[in-house]
Amino acid sequence: MTGFLNIILLSLLVSGVATLAGGFLGSLAGLALGLWDFPGRPSLLRLIRTLMGMPPVVAGLLVYLALSRRGPLGVLGLLFTPTAMIVAQTLLVFPIVTGMVAAIVALTDARARQTALAAGATRTQAALSVAWEAWPGMVAAVVAGFGRAIGEVGAVMLVGGNIGGRTRVMTGAIFLETRQGNFSTAILLGLILLAVAFLVNLALERLERLVPR
Amino acid sequence: MTAPAFSLRDVAVDLGRRRVLEVQSLDITPACVTVVLGPNGAGKTTLLRALGLLVPLAKGSLELFGTARPLGAAGAVAWRRRLGWVEQRPYLFRGTVAANVAYPLRLRGLSPGEIEARVAGALAMVDMLELCGRRAAELSGGEAQRVALARALATAPEVLLLDEPTANLDPASAGRVEEAVRRYARHNGGTVVLVTHGLFLARRLADKAIFLEGGTVVESGEAGRVLHDPQTGPARAFVAGETAN
Known about the structure:
The structure holds 2 protein chains of 2 kinds. Chain A is about 75% helix and about 0% strand. Chain A is mainly α. Chain A is built from 10 helices and no strands. In chain B, about 40% of the residues lie in helices and about 25% in strands. A 6-stranded mixed sheet of chain B has the order 6-7-8-3-9-10, with helices on both faces. Classes of the chains: A mainly alpha, B alpha/beta. Chains A and B meet through α5 and α6 of A and α2 and α3 of B.
């Protein structure tokens, strides 16, 4: 039972921090891409949209190569730690949130920004005003990012190693239990995973209501 | 001698490759209502946007009460903070009526007490004080227009830029907006630049009038003359057409 609880808590920690980091950075990048026209913007948008479909195992591979002993960040000794898993999942969440927020902001009534600027807003204040208007969509983007993080298995397995008691999260545990033929445990873990995702989504829905219509 | 509210010299605005506004020389008199008239596509809204630095100028010089148009972003923000702006289809932000009117005041970093007082004052000017707690999304078109006007008036702007503020409003709502504009101009000594193609609204409010066609000023001067006895062909045709309607 304690093992189960640890796995659930680690899943929430890894995916939660990755969603916060990827969601924050992705929201900023998405706002910039959605609001401002600058040289290279179309290419950047194309790249982000491509990365939205990046297989988790590829993100895991990139982080693995960066953190492995011979990699540029190998000296940090982060491979097979929850930190490495967070980094890998952040890489997955970031493009999803960026792409979705850019699209949502671009679809937000252009008059919102125009009205803000006419009222005397600086560029940053105008961007924040548009974010305020696009808030429900931005929360939906972060929810989608969390869904991507909590449900993926390839990246966390690769950089975390699925080590029991240290880096095993729910998806890794389901994978392992299935391989060992413990289907009832795997199904139970699957149901818990769904329940956790449901509860987190419920909490994020409350965030959506923070901004009145 | 008082500087003109706006002074334009050899100003042009391009939309893509098309020149949509070209003004050789135009001064807008302070402390009076100047109406900008003309058919659809004449460049009226573009002129208003140019005055508010909301579109880039292709060339020319523009001054606001003797201050030259700034080149940097910070200068543009300071310029816009001297103006109030109401669009034909105003955009109201999420939240209450009061929050919308408070919006430009919060941008300027005013204290909560001052914001509250100014919001109440501006809403009273447009007879909307009783609706201050209502959600902006629940307002009718006329109410939204009055909230947008209150939002513009709350900052006590030096110039009020109005783009068809009574279009699509029922006569009662239009009358209230008109009355608020009149009060701002007459009692507060404010400068108003009002874009419209409603000749009768223009005649009721205007001290000065500018007639635009094809992106250029074809006639300007005292409202009494331009609106009743225009000297140029396009303005005469417009006035005759509007009167016939």
